[in-house]
Write a structure and sequence with these properties.
By secondary structure, the protein is mostly helical. 47% of the residues lie in helices and 10% in strands.
């Protein structure tokens, strides 16, 4: 396999996780086969992602049934833009074609993906440098030695507002849903961390999360309805990480005494 090269962009790698059966269509491209942590590229055809694969992908990442069913909106809205590279007619099965996934890019996004699906790492770094409130906020409840390396809920709201362009309600909505889903999947201590988001942009984090869940590893990442309900019921707040942070501070103070 060492003599094979890949033409896959980071955006194509980002969505490759959902192509469960490595199926193909009539547009030549190199296509991914993921084996544990190793990525092998084999010559094949452009892979397609069905609504069923979207559902099962979200389930494997730990999302609930209702949320995963809501993920089918991805096929509803993004199937036709990717189909346009192959046909003017919509795909009756609402399949997504990964070879032309860049055509599903929408307005009012972060701009980290270029128009051809490559990563703009300077914009990625700039997003954290400008939007991470811990850089200037010395009273933040969550501290980090690497300020500028995480985004909180308020930071994401400000980022979404900054990226909104005029007369683009569809882009505003898609961006809001994407950041909401990203936070639910990645949050640790109430924040999205730079290394996690970077791995999500190129798709490698999805495989890691599925492997962790398969091995039943205890990973302090993500946020679900149980966290929300438990936080409100037990502590009167949905911000469970703040409760844990205060609890840890109290334990440290007791140890010092």
């Amino acid at each position: 396999m060492s003599n094979l090269t890949t033409t896959l962009t980071p955006l194509q790698l980002h969505v490759a996780f959902w192509d469960y059966n490595n199926d193909s269509y009539a547009v030549p491209i190199y296509h991914c086969i993921f084996l544990s942590s190793t990525i092998l590229i084999s010559p094949s055809f452009s892979s397609i992602i069905t609504p069923a694969e979207i559902y099962h992908g979200f389930r494997d990442l730990g999302f609930g049934i209702l949320f995963s069913l809501g993920g089918l909106l991805i096929n509803f809205f993004f199937s036709y833009p990717t189909t346009l590279a192959h046909s003017w007619l919509p795909d009756p099965l609402f399949r997504i074609y990964t070879s032309s996934i860049h055509k599903a890019k929408h307005g009012s996004d972060s701009g980290v993906y270029s128009s051809d699906g490559n990563l703009r790492l300077m914009l990625f770094d700039e997003m954290f440098d400008k939007m991470d409130s811990t850089v200037a906020d010395n009273t933040s409840a969550v501290r980090t030695d690497k300020q500028g390396d995480s985004l909180g809920v308020g930071d994401l709201f400000r980022l979404h507002a900054k990226n909104r362009v005029a007369a683009d309600p569809a882009g505003w909505s898609f961006a809001a849903m994407e950041w909401w889903t990203t936070w639910l999947l990645l949050q640790r201590d109430g924040r999205i961390w730079k290394e996690d988001l970077r791995a999500m942009y190129d798709g490698t984090l999805f495989w890691k999360i599925r492997e962790e869940r398969t091995k039943n590893e205890d990973v302090a990442r993500g946020y679900g309805w149980q966290d929300w309900m438990g936080g409100l019921w037990n502590n009167g707040t949905w911000k469970t990480w703040e409760v844990r942070s205060k609890h840890n501070v109290n334990i440290e103070m007791e140890r010092e005494l």
